[in-house]
């Protein structure tokens, strides 16, 4: 689950007249739209507003957005009826997704009753797949089906290449979707850490706990588990260093930090109160 997302390699289209019927949207770690496996070049969007309209529709997960609401979000400096500018942006989005008009106009983006929505049944979106895998893994864990849960967790981990729409960190309408994905990612990592811990794999456990803290540096449970793992394997210097950083993070949010466990309390194969299985919480919003 890398925080630095790999870029989509450029590809050249080889159009032999086939119907363009596959649209894949990448939102985790970067934003890219692939038409039949080929990334749509940035200039094809013609305007930032058209690109942002499509992103907004992706954020809505197929739910309708009234034209007036969309216009207010995309053109906050121009209040009032959406007018022609919204129609132009919508037309541009449809043209980008289906430049040869091989589908009905509403095949990818439907406009009806004064609202627009993305027809998700005709579009593959990574965040939708990621959230579905996370939910299914949580259900599998609740049923004790660890084999299925681990397969789902590994697939989810691969999909979460970074935060949702990283290039739009300061866009308010992207925040709910970003937080939903981050919460789900934290849940996936907690469960993977538990799996690694149960198997006696400290390196994998530490890696997953560190990734949790990359996403949420104030996750006290992850700090305490990480410190306990290092102490349990007699990495006392690393445990002390981590505890110092943990203290600083808790101080930043006004939380009293737990003391560093005495060396005598921990060691390989020795039970420690703070070194216990991670809780399986249904990630918020998932």
TrEMBL record:
Pfam family, one: BTAD
Domain of life: Bacteria
One GO term (biological process): regulation of DNA-templated transcription
Annotated GO MF terms: DNA binding
Residue ranges crossing the lipid bilayer per the database entry: none
Domain annotation Bacterial transcriptional activator: ranges: 125-256
InterPro entries: AfsR-DnrI-RedD_regulator, BTAD, Sig_transdc_resp-reg_C-effctor, TPR-like_helical_dom_sf, WH-like_DNA-bd_sf
Entry protein name: Bacterial transcriptional activator domain-containing protein
């Amino acid at each position: 689950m890398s925080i630095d997302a790999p870029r989509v390699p450029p590809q050249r289209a080889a159009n032999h007249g086939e119907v363009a019927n596959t649209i894949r949207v990448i939102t985790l770690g970067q934003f890219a739209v692939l038409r039949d496996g080929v990334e749509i070049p940035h200039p094809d969007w013609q305007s930032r507003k058209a690109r942002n309209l499509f992103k907004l529709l992706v954020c809505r997960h197929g739910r309708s957005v009234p034209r007036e609401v969309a216009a207010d979000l995309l053109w906050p400096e121009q209040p009032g009826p959406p007018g022609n500018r919204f129609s132009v942006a919508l037309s541009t989005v449809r043209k980008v997704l289906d430049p040869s008009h091989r589908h009905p106009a509403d095949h990818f983006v439907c406009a009806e009753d004064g609202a627009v929505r993305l027809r998700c049944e005709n579009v593959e979106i990574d965040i939708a797949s990621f959230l579905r895998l996370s939910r299914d893994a949580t259900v599998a864990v609740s049923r004790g089906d660890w084999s299925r849960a681990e397969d789902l967790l590994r697939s989810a981990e691969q999909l979460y290449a970074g935060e949702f729409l990283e290039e739009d960190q300061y866009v308010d309408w992207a925040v709910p979707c970003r937080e939903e994905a981050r919460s789900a990612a934290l849940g996936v990592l907690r469960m993977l850490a538990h799996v690694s811990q149960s198997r006696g794999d400290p390196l994998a456990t530490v890696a997953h706990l560190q990734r949790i803290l990359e996403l949420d540096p104030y996750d006290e449970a992850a700090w305490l588990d990480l410190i306990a793992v290092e102490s349990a394997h007699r990495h006392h210097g690393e445990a002390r260093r981590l505890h110092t950083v943990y203290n600083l993070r808790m101080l930043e949010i006004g939380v009293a930090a737990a003391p560093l466990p005495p060396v005598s309390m921990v060691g390989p194969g020795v039970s420690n109160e703070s070194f216990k299985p991670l809780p399986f919480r249904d990630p918020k919003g998932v």
